[in-house]
Write a structure and sequence with these properties.
The protein is an all-alpha fold. It has one domain. It is 91% helix and 0% strand. It is elongated.
Length: 66
């Protein structure tokens, strides 16, 4: 496997891992809300959305390899 193939596999891995992290942030935002900490829930919600936006950048990087 050459370096570009390796990088492409890494990008797919990072993208998937990014999704996993995003779902954890969303779950904790819900928990914080249920515990009455709306401010923390709001911030964690923003972190979730920003993390999901990163997937577009991973897609662009993957496309740049192809």
């Amino acid at each position: 496997m050459n370096e570009m193939e390796k990088l492409k596999k890494l990008l797919y891995h990072w993208q998937h891992h990014n999704d996993e992290h995003a779902e954890v942030y969303r779950a904790w935002a819900d928990k914080a809300s249920n515990l009455g900490n709306k401010e923390l829930s709001k911030v964690l919600g923003k972190i979730y959305h920003e993390t999901k936006k990163m997937n577009g950048l991973f897609e662009k990087a993957i496309e740049a390899i192809d």
